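Thread amino acids onto this structure.
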């Protein structure tokens, strides 16, 4: 095998990739921003309340974030997943992921979900007419909603799938194919227009989604749709293999202007498809849908590569306060939803500019969540479970 295709020898404790740590934290905090903005959108969506001060600017902001955030998150999860799998081995990898992901998911379902239900019921008593929301039908085990915790379940599925694929590959003697796969990945990652290469499989997953450009009604049932597992699995696999070929990571620093430009064009195209409001009975519906799913796929990949490369270039330094926020981001995202919903219902009828109310919701959330992390989580068993042990700085 040539030197250019050789995988660097594994290092049991390789240095942290601070840029991706920081990017993962940014994706978490962007989730709070997105959820805090939903009640201010002009688009009617199934949400707890609709604010009297809605603005189309919130539709655009939510669309920008929603179109790439979770895709980016699973891309990064794949990268760090391979790092841990390589460091710990399959068995300890699964144990560690269950501790950090599985247990928080179960605890969140029995603590946060009841709080969300209570806040939602309180909203019902205050809101006339009632806000538009999905019809759940008969409640069964599989129809239990997971709300924002769905990503934890998806992570468990993808981690399990990755370990199963590795085990199957060893049993079937497929290791001889790895050099060819590595060479193909190296060629792919060097391509300036690599987002275009990923559009066909990604768009195919999106074709059966509940609406144009959407893969699934995430969080509305216990088990995700199969197409959603495949869809997010594509981002996870690319991230997983990128860590396997981590000497190629700096390739993502290149072509940022191209990726941002492609993402902007794709976003505008997807927005135009939504504004067309094509119905299945329309003669041009298939063409609009095909354009929409292709644009959504291209936007997700282009912005994933663009934002990752931007963080690699400009946000890769280690700063203690950024490291602190990165540690706090997981806790903040896990527990933010009940507080966001309560504040949205509280301010929904205030005759105040929507952006001011949004800023108020975000400010209260950040203060409460960061304070709770510092005083109740960081140096406790909860913090050890979520992020590992953290030592207090000693002062004289």
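Threaded sequence (396 positions):
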């Amino acid at each position: 095998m040539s030197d250019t295709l050789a995988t660097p020898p594994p290092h049991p404790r390789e240095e942290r990739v601070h840029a991706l740590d920081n990017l993962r934290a940014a994706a978490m905090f962007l989730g709070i921003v997105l959820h805090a903005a939903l009640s201010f959108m002009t688009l009617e969506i199934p949400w707890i309340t609709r604010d009297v001060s809605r603005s189309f600017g919130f539709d655009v902001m939510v669309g920008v974030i929603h179109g790439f955030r979770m895709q980016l998150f699973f891309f990064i999860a794949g990268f760090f997943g391979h790092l841990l799998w390589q460091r710990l081995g399959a068995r300890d990898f699964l144990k560690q992921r269950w501790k950090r992901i599985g247990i928080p998911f179960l605890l969140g379902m029995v603590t946060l979900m009841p709080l969300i239900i209570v806040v939602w019921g309180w909203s019902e008593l205050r809101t006339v007419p009632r806000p538009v929301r999905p019809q759940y039908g008969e409640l069964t085990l599989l129809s239990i909603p997971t709300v924002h915790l769905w990503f934890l379940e998806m992570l468990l599925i993808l981690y399990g799938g990755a370990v199963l694929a590795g085990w199957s590959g060893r049993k079937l003697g497929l290791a001889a194919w790895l050099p060819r796969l590595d060479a193909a990945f190296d060629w792919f990652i060097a391509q300036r227009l690599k987002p275009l290469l990923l559009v066909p499989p990604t768009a195919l997953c999106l074709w059966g989604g509940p609406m144009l450009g959407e893969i699934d009604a995430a969080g509305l049932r216990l088990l995700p749709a199969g197409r959603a597992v495949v869809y997010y699995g594509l981002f996870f696999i690319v991230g997983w293999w990128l860590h396997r070929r981590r000497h190629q990571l700096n390739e993502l620093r290149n072509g940022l202007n191209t990726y941002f430009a492609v993402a902007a064009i794709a976003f505008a195209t997807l927005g135009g498809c939504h504004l067309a409001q094509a119905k299945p009975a329309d003669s041009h519906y298939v063409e609009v849908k095909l354009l929409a799913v292709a644009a959504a796929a291209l936007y997700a990949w282009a912005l994933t590569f663009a934002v990752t490369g931007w963080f690699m270039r400009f946000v890769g330094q280690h700063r203690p306060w950024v490291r602190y926020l990165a540690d706090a981001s997981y806790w903040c995202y896990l527990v933010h939803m009940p507080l966001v919903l309560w504040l949205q219902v509280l301010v929904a009828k205030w005759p105040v500019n929507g952006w001011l109310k949004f800023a108020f919701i975000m400010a209260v959330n950040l203060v409460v969540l960061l304070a709770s992390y510092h005083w109740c989580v960081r140096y406790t068993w909860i913090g050890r479970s979520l992020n590992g042990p953290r030592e207090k700085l000693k002062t004289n």
